[in-house]
Amino acid sequence: MHTYHTPLDLVRERSPEHPVALVRRDAVAAAARWFQTKFKGDVLYAVKANPSPWVIETLVQNGVTRFDVASIPEIALVAEHAPGSQMAFMHPVKSRRSISQAYFDYGVRTFALDTHEELAKILDATGGARDLNLIVRMAVDAEGANFSLSGKFGVTPFEAPSLLLAARQATSALMGVSFHVGSQCMRPTAYQAAMAQVSRSLIRAGVFADVVDVGGGFPSIYPGMIPPDMDDYFSAIERGFNEMPVSETTELWCEPGRALVAESTSLLTRVELRKGEALYLNDGSYGSLFDAAHVKWPFPVKLYRGEGAEAREVEGDLKPFRFYGPTCDSMDHMPGPFYLPTDIQEGDFIEIGMLGAYGVAMTTRFNGFGETEMVEVTDAPMASMFGLARRSIPAPKPASNVVRLSRPKGRKRRRK
Ligand SMILES: *Cc1c(COP(=O)(O)O)cnc(C)c1O
């Protein structure tokens, strides 16, 4: 990958015709070291948040050597870029063939499940193996997350005891519990509450868990969504763990996805046309802006204008704009609002920040417009949970007739 110091240097040097993903290795490194040092347990990276080889390699170099994988392609990817690392197959629904391949070809020993049927499938597809770490995925009520994941996965408190007992009896290795409070969880206490719910099921089943896996959900920073400190999440989890009926040898795991990668990547895109408050860009929901179009979050933006040495960052009075991508599909629409200078015009470059999770990575799967070029930059991300940049997105400085962005209250929860 070619390296520039800043996105502005890239604009000055070559005014790129096509969208470019700007990758910040240091952001992943800092997040990885933060989790490794401060989380009082094992850290598994949830690969689906950003399956780029450079992410996997940077994580390994910075001490995160365990991976939460959800498919054989992800397992193959990790095996290639992090040879010898430990993988946990945490999708609660897997085909027999992928279970066998994971176990026999890739040495995977840790599998999640949320039904008796899946347990039987796992035992059958591994030839009745006794060395499996079986992790029972529990449904929890997650208040304060921006996406609830419990609608789709997890055994209910009513059915959990019999499944916990069955998993306990099925293995001579570890039996654990896991949950997911939902992505972009804005409330640290959600973890503690989930752990209390899980405890009740363990007590009713009369079993100890060897592993308590608190899942992902650790937040990143977006305009209008400034989370509490990451330390608050870790201490809520520590308190929750101490209140659980666990033994001295019980392992604590977490599976962050978003938090490890969101800050790392932004996208440099160009305005091809302005029509009032609508900006037509050279990238869209089928490219790197999948998340911006589908979750409709207002990602932070910066504006660069001019060519060669003249190019500069433009600030000034801001107003809200919406984006359209290059396809003819009406879904290719990102409502934002994206706060940009009122005089934005065709030919200006927009850097869209904090797209490292569930964003730029999607281009490999929706590549109708070809793979997005990637370059490295060495400046700080637009905002950081890990001390690399300010802990907030600068509040937009609106033109006088524009409403200020505020922290959303009582946001509608969405399913992912
Ligand atoms: C997606 C996922 C994660 C990561 O979630 P984030 O909200 O990105 O941290 C962790 N564990 C499981 C089982 C997942 O499906």
Quick summary of this structure?
The protein has 416 residues and is an alpha/beta fold. The chain has helices spanning 7-14, 25-38, 53-61, 72-81, 96-106, 116-125, 160-170, 189-205, 230-242, 258-261, 290-294, and strands at 3-4, 20-23, 42-46, 66-69, 86-89, 110-113, 133-137, 145-148, 175-178, 183-185, 211-213, 251-254, 265-275, 278-281, 301-305, 312-314, 318-324, 333-341, 349-352, 373-377, 414-415.
Tally of separate helices: 11
- Uncertain regions: pLDDT < 50 for 5+ in a row? 362-369, 401-416
CATH topology of the largest domain: TIM Barrel
CATH 2nd-level architecture of the largest domain: Alpha-Beta Barrel
- Helix coverage percent of residues? 25-40%
Distance between the termini: 32 Å
* Ligand catalogue: pyridoxal-5'-phosphate
Describe the structure.
- This protein has two domains: 3-22 and 263-377, Lyase, Ornithine Decarboxylase, Chain A, domain 1; 25-261, Alpha-Beta Barrel (TIM Barrel).
- Helix content is 27%, strand content 23%.
- The chain contains eleven helices and 21 strands.
- It has helices at 7-14, 25-38, 53-61, 72-81, 96-106, 116-125, 160-170, 189-205, 230-242, 258-261, 290-294; strands at residues 3-4, 20-23, 42-46, 66-69, 86-89, 110-113, 133-137, 145-148, 175-178, 183-185, 211-213, 251-254, 265-275, 278-281, 301-305, 312-314, 318-324, 333-341, 349-352, 373-377, 414-415.
- Pyridoxal-5'-phosphate binds at residues 46, 48-49, 68, 90, 180, 183, 215-218, 255-259, 357.
